[in-house]
Write a structure and sequence with these properties.
Length: 96
Amino acid sequence: MPTCYACGIETEFDDPCVECNELMNEGVIFVRVHFDKEGEMHRTGQMAVVEYEEAIDNPDKVNQILKDRVAYIPIDTWDMLGLPVPHLDQESIGGV
Ligand SMILES: [Zn+2]
């Protein structure tokens, strides 16, 4: 089953799901992620929609971000940027 590359839920196609697609019209989706000891990325299930201008303080990444409409942001960076942290069940963070 393909999954939405933004939120990670199962979708019919390997594309953003309907919900993410709508969010992508509003801005870029920042996905809060956690890297384990092996450097593997895990989603925390938390996302924020950021308007383009706010996403542009990292010029190296901005082209890719704007193309994908999705940016994977490690927890540390997320907190540093002061992005909102939606309430979430701690269990979804998976082993943190
Ligand atoms: Zn989605």
